[in-house]
Give the backbone structure.
Amino acid sequence: MSELFMMVTIIERKHTRKFHTFYEEMGLPVSVVTLGMGTAASEILDYFGLDGSEKGVMFHFVTREKWKEVKRQLQLKMKIDVPGIGIAFIVPISSIGGKKTLNYLTAGQDFVKGEESTLKDTKYELLVVIANQGYVEQIMDAARKVQAAGGTAIHAKGTGGTQAEKFLGVTLVPEKEMVFIVARTDTKNAIMKSIMDEAGVGTKAGAIVFSLPVTETAGMRLMEDIE
């Protein structure tokens, strides 16, 4: 899949609501918001005008053209280039589990499907699963059936319920779990399919799944030995 990205915004937690409103006005109603804590070294924090306080982390899904539009408004309207406001960046998405999920995440953005992966030679990919709260084990059981080694879950809050009903035909509860699974590229499709079949849209878990290319890794020796 080409020209589709996950946009990550990291800001002071007190600015989360303001940025959420801004993104909705920009036509990005579908998002996942979680909380974080700044941990960078003091000289890095000083450089960006940030501190080590609590952060808001926002995930959206944008085409390249939408990113250009949003980036310009982040600079003009939200003054994101001013030290202390925050940062935003994009990560290419290599595949998405199903057409309904694609339509839901892009929320009406103009998008022409290209080749599945923008980085063809990556050995690993990061699978990101967004599901209703309380179904992490169901998701991981489905993933392990096709040799997924393990995953990491964090709690988050989702928006875009109207889009969920429109594109997925279901109502999604706002409380979410995000599950991150690093998998070999050649096993990615099987893991995504297993999750969609056993915990996807239409089940109580209501999981959607997409993948991001992983270009470099460290600490993967155990996984490689097992395989």
